[in-house]
Design goal:
Layout (H helix, E strand, L loop, with lengths): L40 H5 L5 E2 L2 E9 L4 E2 L5 E6 L2 E6 L5 H4 L1 E4 L7 E11 L7 E7 L5 E8 L5 E7 L5 E2 L6 E7 L7 E13 L22 E7 L4 E2 L5 E6 L2 E6 L3 E4 L7 E11 L7 E7 L4 E8 L5 E14 L6 E7 L6 E11 L46 H4 L6 E6 L5 E2 L6 E3 L5 E3 L3 E6 L7 E11 L5 E8 L5 E8 L3 E10 L4 H5 L4 E8 L7 E10 L14
Length: 557
Amino acid sequence: MLVFLGLVASAWLKPAPMAAQTPLTGDQAAPLLNPVSEGTLQDFETGLNSTNGAVLYQTAAYPGTAFHRRNSTVGYAYYGGGCTYLTAANGGNEDNNALSTRLDLPEGAVIVGVEFQYRDTDAVNNSRLYLYRFDGAGGIASVALLNSSGNGGHGSSYTTTNLNTTYDPFNYSYSLVWYSGAAGINHALCGVRVKYAYSAPVARPFTMPPANQPDALQGGSSGYSFTAASDFVAINDTISYSYAGAGCMIHNGGANLAAEVDMPDGMEFRGYRAFYYNTVSGAAMNANLAKINGSTSVDVLVGSTTTSAGYGEDYFTFPTTEIIDELSKGYLLYIRPGTSSVTRMCGIRSFWAIPVQARPTSAYTNPVSQVSSDRDASGMLLSENRPQPNQLHNVDLSMPEELASPMITNEYQFLTARSFVPRESAQGMESSNNGCVAFGSDLELSYTFQLPPNSGLRGVRFYYRNPAGDSVLARYWAYNGYSWFTPIFSYSIPSSSDYTSSLVSYTGSHYDLSNGTVSHSLSVAALNSTSTVDFCGARVWYTTGLRSLYIPVAFKN
């Protein structure tokens, strides 16, 4: 599976000059790798979803609802049309007040254009959109910077010239970060498009990695996924956390922060490397992994950092072989940073390779392979685990998507519930057992997914438990970043006393016909404040002919 998608750009650009900005500080003062030049709609669209010899051009797209806060005291709300705005700021620290989302592209892709879609009715202040890259050791650079302009409402800005930055997940994580001009509805983030060029992958010559660094850059059919700590999200609304700069995070209480694992289906998840900063002797932070199948969550590893001499990194391998299988399960990484700027977590880089039968156990030994703890991988206290009802342990082979013709083009994305984010900070989100999410109040959770170009969406399977038959809607949305939106389908979650799932079939061609012109999101909404529903994830079922060209790679947001 690959991350390919886009949003439609408006033909109208606000010509008003940009108002003066306050001096940049913190992350904003990072060196700009490429000069910003304002492009045109035609510049951005040239080559979109087309080929030029061996080079293909595609667009990754994110509505405003795909962005999350980096500080638990910052307030945000849904404006409409996929747009998000700030309702409350945390003092004058703009880096803490920013909203963020991870940029997922194929390894080796060349970023050639960025579009920022916004709503701006403020005659004085502008909002800003940055594309940052972090190295996990305090290094930060700004790949692109765009501003809103004028005060006429919906608009967009583009940069296309002198970009040409290669997406390198071995060395860097990448984040799209929005700074609002002020709290309130005068500024809203409505979407971001990132246009990129790539060539069909060719297997790189394999080189044997050093014995003490099994995830070293080694070629062959292997790869990496790097997520900044600032793009891990809260799994409930009781967690206290804040931003510490350069993609790093601080944690002050509650459960852990979580991020989806993005790897090619069928590959072996070999291990992950944690990047952090620690100068406190005896202090340790957690970097954990769990696998979730829609009704159960199993801890794969509860790992602990080891260094206390400044910036450090530890590599963790697993006690069992872990194969990425989007048909039956998803993986979720959890981090638990320290409580101050001298104990902060900065990112996780995951490593995958082709499975090898009877592969001998690596001679490399984890710094801490398994840690005794009073918390599970998610950071929930083991003493708080509740008795669980009977669980659905195995895939039901009567499911239509499993019985479909075994064509090579059938593909899946398993979306864990804890990687969905609330559309508003005031809504109550709670963690429940088995990797699920409970609805503590009126709550709508959202997840932006992206499929390869010309995919045909076949359906979405929702996993849940609804013992009281509460009113809960699951919906599939499309947005264009300029206030247009439409629900492609809406499904009422039925009652069920036990964990179960339901397939919503889709025979239309909306995704297939989008050609990168709209963004696509799933949402699950409880319509009353006393809901007892557990939402446990979703699985997207689609078809594509791309596998005959190259191995597809999954990137999920």
